[in-house]
Design a protein that fits this description.
The complex is a heterodimer of chains A (418) and B (361). Chain A contains 20 helices and 2 strands. Chain A has 418 residues and is mainly α. Chain B is built from 15 helices and 13 strands. Helices cover 42% and strands 20% of the residues of chain B.
Chain lengths: 418, 361
């Protein structure tokens, strides 16, 4: 304390002072963003992380028959596993039978192996019921109980799934599978469904985006050029459906397009169609495309409108005064200026369409369903959440790649969303 | 200070009284399939039980399957007390540990004095569930548009009976019915379906009408499809068609040839609250009288033998006898097959995938 203070030490450089002062401010600003950050983590990062985790996590074998899962790793895959491995398997099964903890029951193991080898589910559950009666020699005992246990495929599959992480769900999501020798091959044609559906989803989304752009461009143009009073009225016509519940709009299309619906009734009334020759316009791809174009159209109109509104009409006048024809001026002067809006609309509509679920589920019938419907099917019906997660992850990856491509081609900075 | 303490005491006493009150009058959530079926349960189970005990039953609808139960149990947030499940889902849910084990010794004896174990039809009690009804997938047609059908083969005969057909979207029980329509006797259906050639045969048969099929998913859809004229024949749950006829006077006729019957059961999601009340409700609703009462609201057969004698007429039409409309009535049961839950537990993932691929191509 009594030490003389060196005056030079006491002078804090201005830069440091400034840094100190702004540090507090920056912290405060950071604190203000915390609710959003937490919200994003809880509602976005964690669920997606959990989904990605599920798509590769494969705990069934090591959870249900833990000792066997370790032992089987030593097997060379020739013939059948050793007697000791059989013994571990049976004793693990006896323990597992009593377990009713979720994720650790014989049913979980049976479900998992049934994905790889259809038809083996009841083999596990029925064997577990009698497992405590099996005595040495275990190999013979198990095979005597059910001769399916002598199938080497079953044991190869158990060995493959004894690892905690697996690419199997991604393989299944791409119509691939392991063959008898453990090589990755294409699934049987009769069971191929996902890859073609991914392609179909991309095609339908592209088609919807294209139709939306075709329809929205003139509408947005008219909206932006009309006097305020008329354009406001038109704008309400655009927004009113936008504010109406998705379900109502989708069901309205059902009422309009079904074979006993409005459009068919009118055609029959006018004599254009015979009563028994009504056209199927819904519950197929046509229905999906029609309803989704209607639902997604505002997402194309609004960004286009906001861009067109800012385009100075004098540019067009200048072009025409210099001798350009209307169509030429439109193409060379007006259109390039609307690109940011068109690109934003395209991105919005395409990405919304690619993950659309409820409309195709309601009006898609059997050939109009998209990949998100198959994901929903695995989450809600088949309960194969891992496969659903793998499909979602692939969809997510596809969207990210498309976004990256789009950024390369158009540049995200150039977009104008409204 | 004293004032604060006494205030705190009063508050806690009041809240304890409220808490105690809520224990006495519990509320349980019973989940079922909606429509006419849920109504039959509300009338025969929920209302009388609520009146007798002072508890309340909240009725919720779902469209089958284990997804919601699995999600609730895995999240540790079980809001359902009781779910009306199909047998195959009971077996799978029990195997995977998402259902509570139910002690059958709590079940009351039959009205005729027989023990519960004897009174319930064989196979209608499960480690994790108590059976309620026998229901059936049948096929039905609009009698103003179709006449002269005899057997399931006619359902697949587009030349003799032109028009759209309604089928449930999924392989179950379409594969079974396709085989029976193709001439496989009911008792051989699952033996044939157990072979690759049999599955192929079923899909080949479905192929013959594929272009004329409208696929339905919820039980309420088929009567609606018939009423709207969207289809001339459809498969359906027998109770839904019965109710469209009995309650709404629709001109629909059920043909029982090749019916595929199944069970619905009460099961409890693992970790559900209000266990004592829920079990009491199960006891009540699976009693001889409650099951017989339910059968006066919809044509699903009670699983207790002792209930059969008490099944009377439709609740508001004394001259409409319910017995001939039950899936288990001898006249209807001639060519019937029980849904084989083990076959579906083994093969549903694979067959669903194949079915979806078949549909999309």
């Amino acid at each position: 304390m009594n030490q003389a203070i060196n005056p030079i030490d006491n002078v804090i450089p201005l830069k440091e002072k400034l840094a100190k002062a702004t540090k507090v401010q920056r912290r405060r600003a950071l604190l203000l963003t915390m609710p959003l950050v937490i919200f994003l983590i809880v509602s976005f990062v964690l669920p997606i992380g959990e989904m990605l985790w599920r798509s590769v996590h494969n705990p069934a074998v090591s959870n249900v028959v833990p000792n066997f899962a370790i032992a089987i790793q030593q097997w060379d895959g020739q013939g059948l596993p050793s007697e000791e491995m059989f013994e571990t398997f049976v004793s693990d099964l006896v323990v597992a039978k009593k377990n009713r903890e979720i994720g650790k029951t014989v049913g979980n193991l049976a479900t998992r192996i049934n994905y790889a080898l259809p038809g083996s589910r009841s083999l596990f559950t029925s064997t577990a019921r009698k497992a405590n009666k099996i005595s040495a020699p275990y190999k013979e005992g198990l095979i005597a109980l059910n001769k399916k246990w002598s199938n080497p495929q079953l044991w190869l599959s158990l060995q493959r799934n004894a690892k905690d992480f697996t690419p199997a769900f991604y393989l299944a999501a791409l119509d691939l599978k392991y063959d008898d020798k453990g090589n990755v091959v294409q699934a049987d044609k009769l069971y191929q469904i996902y890859l073609s559906n991914f392609i179909k989803t991309l095609q339908i989304s592209a088609l919807i985006t294209f139709i939306c752009a075709l329809l929205a461009y003139p509408i947005a143009y008219v909206l932006s050029t009309l006097p305020l009073r008329q354009s406001n009225l038109l704008m309400i016509l655009v927004l009113l459906p936008f504010w109406t519940s998705l379900l109502v709009r989708t069901t309205a299309w059902i009422a309009i397009l079904q074979t006993e619906g409005l459009v068919n009734d009118i055609f029959v009334f006018l004599g254009i169609l015979a009563d028994d020759g009504r056209v199927q316009m819904i519950y197929n791809q046509t229905g999906t495309v029609t309803a989704m174009v209607h639902i997604l159209l505002p997402f194309m109109i609004l960004p286009l409108y906001s861009v067109m509104k800012t385009i100075n009409p004098t540019y067009m006048k200048a072009a025409i005064s210099m001798g350009a024809k209307q169509s030429y001026a439109m193409r060379r002067v007006y259109l390039p200026q609307t690109i940011p809006g068109l690109a934003a609309g395209t991105l919005l509509v395409f990405i919304l369409a690619i993950g659309y679920y409820i409309t195709p589920a309601l009006v898609g019938g059997e050939d109009g369903i998209l990949i998100s419907n198959l994901i929903a099917y695995h989450i809600q019906k088949s309960l194969n959440w891992s496969l659903g997660a793998a499909l979602s992850a692939i969809l997510l990856g596809t969207v990210l790649i498309l976004y990256w491509l789009f950024n390369k081609l158009v540049g995200i900075d150039n977009l104008k969303f409204g | 200070m004293k004032n604060v303490i006494s205030k705190a005491l009063i508050t806690s006493a009041v809240s304890m009284a409220v808490f105690a009150g809520s224990v006495q009058a519990a509320s349980i959530t019973a989940v079922s399939w909606g429509g006419a079926y849920t109504k039959s349960q509300v009338e025969a189970y929920h209302k009388p039980w609520a009146a007798a005990t002072g508890n309340t039953v909240v009725s919720e609808d779902y469209s089958g399957g284990l997804a919601e139960i699995k999600a609730q149990v895995e999240a540790g947030n079980v809001t359902w007390n009781l779910v009306d499940l199909e047998l195959s889902d009971v077996v799978r849910g029990c195997d995977e540990g998402i259902l509570e084990v139910i002690d059958h010794s709590i079940l009351p004896n039959g009205a005729d004095g027989s023990s519960a174990a004897d009174d319930f039809l064989p196979g209608t009690l499960h480690e994790c569930a108590v059976g309620l009804i026998v229901w059936s997938t049948i096929w039905a047609y609009d009698s103003t548009k179709i006449s002269g059908v005899n057997s399931l083969a006619d359902f697949y005969d587009l030349e003799k009976f032109p028009g759209k057909r309604g089928l449930r979207k999924g392989p179950k029980p379409n594969l079974e019915m396709a085989l029976m329509a193709d001439g496989v006797p009911a008792s051989y259906v699952y033996i044939v379906l157990g072979t690759d050639a049999g599955v192929q045969r079923a899909f080949d048969k479905l192929d013959t009408i594929k272009d004329s099929v409208i696929w339905w998913e919820a039980g309420a859809q088929p009567p609606q499809l018939l009423a709207d004229g969207e289809v001339v024949m459809t498969t359906a749950y027998n109770g839904r068609i019965f109710n469209a006829v009995a309650a709404e006077g629709k001109p629909f006729v059920i043909n029982w040839d090749g019916q595929v019957w199944d069970l619905d059961m009460w099961a409890i999601p693992k970790g559900a609250s209000n266990m004592a009340e829920t079990l009491d409700f199960i006891k009540f609703s699976s009693s001889t009288q409650a099951l017989a009462d339910q059968a006066s609201w919809i044509s699903y057969g009670p699983v207790r033998k002792s209930s059969a004698a008490l099944v009377g007429s439709y609740h508001n039409q004394p001259d409409l006898d319910m017995a001939p409309h039950m899936p288990t009535a001898p006249e209807n049961f001639k060519n019937a097959v029980q849904n084989n839950f083990e076959f579906w537990a083994d093969n549903q993932d694979q067959l669903n995938e194949r079915f979806n691929a078949w549909l999309a191509n």
